[in-house]
């Protein structure tokens, strides 16, 4: 299986198609997104519970957060694979329901392979992050520990800026280079995970496909990132205003009413974000790694729903 180079405006195309995702089977797509959203909340809830019980210091809080992130990868990876397969089914006009998101957890569903890819990518993130901190982040960990300690001591009270320690000198270089590498690794993750979930590729070959595919499509991936950032600013402001108005109106009646009005809107927004995000991920993978006749705007031809089992 080979990777393809797309045009410079492909990033705009991926975003547009991600926004339009669900038109073929909205109940399945949005229902599955809602399931995955609630599953994604479980590690965070567990982290809050453990932190409330243990009441750790700054180092302990970072350790608990790292454990929650690791648990999130293990739990979410099969659901992400199931969601991508569900999207592929709807785009190929195959029968699909929201419960199909559980397919990787069933016998022969490749949950182990999906988790393996997620853990391997996380390992690369850690290795690259440690390398960047070693070169550019002298004093960064000590600075972060001091800031977290001040935050814990302040509680709900805002931190006095005069108490904040000075940021390390290499922080700007670290953030700039880290952003570039994060963008590249995001492309590797999207393409490689799609290869595992949909392409039937072993983890090591899917990782290679992700690296090569991202290198061939740096320009459209960069354009996609710029579009997301630019669009998130006005959209975020509008949503903030809407949620604030709803909260004020509901709060005038009772705080419980405000929460009852804002929470469903917030959850609905998160579901929409999941649909768009994984839609972009799917179309990126399909244009870079899919057959030539499934690329572009046209609907893909019918395909078999069988998933080939390829050993790692």
Automatic annotation (TrEMBL):
Keywords: Membrane, Transmembrane, Transmembrane helix. The chain crosses the membrane at residues 29-54, 60-84, 114-136, 174-200, 221-253, 265-285. The keyword DNA-binding does not apply. This is DUF898 domain-containing protein. It comes from Lysobacter auxotrophicus.
